[in-house]
Write a structure and sequence with these properties.
Distance between the termini: 18 Å
Strand order of the largest sheet: 3-2-1-4-5-6-7
Shape: elongated
Keywords: Glycosyltransferase, Transferase
Organism: Billgrantia montanilacus
Oligomer: single chain
CATH class of the largest domain: Alpha Beta
Protein name: Glycosyltransferase family 1 protein
Number of domains: 2
CATH topology of the largest domain: Rossmann fold
GO molecular function, one term: glycosyltransferase activity
Family: Belongs to the glycosyltransferase group 1 family. Glycosyltransferase 4 subfamily.
Strand content: 15-25%
Number of helices: 16
Order of helices and strands: EHEHEHHEHEHEHEHEHEHEHEHEHEHHH
Length: about 375
């Protein structure tokens, strides 16, 4: 059973729904526990299972008997939590039913020590903690009250098939027009939640420098991500970002696409993908762009340098808009380099970040005695 009692919507919340179809394909019977009415619950239904639901995180603890009965009825022996707050329930269930194996994926990258009495109890019930990058594993080892051998780096994976090109040239051009990209312009996209830390402000500043330093280049920026709190974004941050775009007179060079469910197709319309997140725990957007065969410019911080290097992408400091402007200018000028980097990135995604391989590694851990 995957437990994700979150009312938000981001990479962490998307994870159970992403892997459940592959768990089924590999012979397991997955179950889910989510908050009633949450996006997580809806994603589990879309993935093909009817999740058990609770009204609130607090009520989940009060309904521990109901959850235990469900586990017994379905002969569930593995629990997998995805938020640190879920471990309160997971550890309690593992305490009351000692044969349960309890797993936890740290999707966020812990930033402070968790070695007080409560955390020693909760993490003491964890069979294996999964870090999603080497960068986060180093922090996990320092922060969590667990022996290092119980903390394993397990990169995330994606289904590569949706990212293979499907659009005809006419369809691709129509999508580019929808995104406001003028004919013959290079489309530079930044997908992700619009919130502090994802680097959109730095990127907008870099676009202004790109226009100033390289006035001969034809390009158009596309911001992809929800514009409201209901879509997972920070509305105050969005308003500030729009004000920044206006103050730099970039309204005609930048399009806000909003939340889109057709991201694989949007990648087809883009030529360059930028991920300037300051301290990304993994970088799901990076591997999605790689799978789509795109030239990626990523921040040289957090886990992103584990995903791309100079052979399959570009790295720039999240504190240096000048470096981003120069990196984007080089790719705008050189379509052959964009193609070469994109093809290399696509090969690396297939070799290292394929969903079926991720799930096989996960199941090996689940199956350990």
């Amino acid at each position: 059973m995957h437990i994700c009692l979150s009312d938000g919507w981001g990479g962490l919340e998307m994870y159970p729904g992403r892997i459940i179809p592959e768990l089924k394909r590999q012979g397991w019977e997955p179950h889910g526990l989510a908050l009633a009415g949450s996006a997580v619950a809806a994603s589990l239904v879309e993935a093909g299972i009817e999740p058990m639901t609770v009204p609130t995180r607090g009520r989940a603890l009060l309904q521990v008997g109901r959850v235990l009965a469900y586990l017994k009825r379905h002969d569930i022996g593995v629990l997998h939590c995805h938020k640190s707050s879920d471990l309160r329930l997971g550890a309690l269930l593992a305490t009351l039913r000692p044969k349960l194996k309890l797993f936890f994926t740290d999707h966020m990258g812990v930033t402070r020590a968790k070695k007080d009495l409560y955390h020693r109890w909760a993490y003491g019930r964890v069979t294996r903690l999964f870090a999603i990058s080497d960068a986060t594993r180093a922090r996990n080892v320092a922060a969590f009250p667990l022996p290092v051998e119980r903390i394993k780096r397990l990169y995330l994976g994606i289904d590569l098939e949706p990212y293979r090109p499907r659009l005809s040239e006419a369809e691709r051009e129509a999508l580019r027009r929808e995104l406001g990209v003028p004919a013959a312009s290079v489309a530079i996209g930044l997908p992700g939640r619009l919130t502090d830390g994802k680097g959109q402000e730095l990127w907008v500043e870099a676009l202004a420098l790109l226009r100033e330093r390289y006035p001969d280049l034809a390009w158009h920026g596309v911001v992809i991500g929800g514009l409201t709190a209901a879509e997972g974004s920070d509305e105050a941050y969005v308003a500030g970002l729009r004000a920044q775009v206006a103050s730099l007179s970039l309204e005609t060079r930048l399009h806000f696409a909003g939340f889109r469910r057709d991201l694989p197709r949007l990648f087809e319309a883009l030529d360059i993908v930028c991920v300037p997140s300051r301290n990304e725990a993994f970088g799901l957007t990076v591997i999605e762009a790689m799978a789509a065969g795109k030239a990626v410019v990523g921040a040289d911080s957090g886990a992103i340098p584990e995903l791309i290097d100079a052979t399959c992408g570009c790295l720039a400091s999240p504190d240096a808009p000048e470096a981003w402007a120069d990196a984007m200018a080089g790719l705008v000028r050189d379509p052959e380099q964009r193609q070469r980097l994109g093809q290399a990135a696509q090969r690396r995604a297939a070799e290292r970040f394929e969903l079926a391989a991720h799930v096989r590694a996960l199941l090996e851990e689940y199956s350990q005695p």
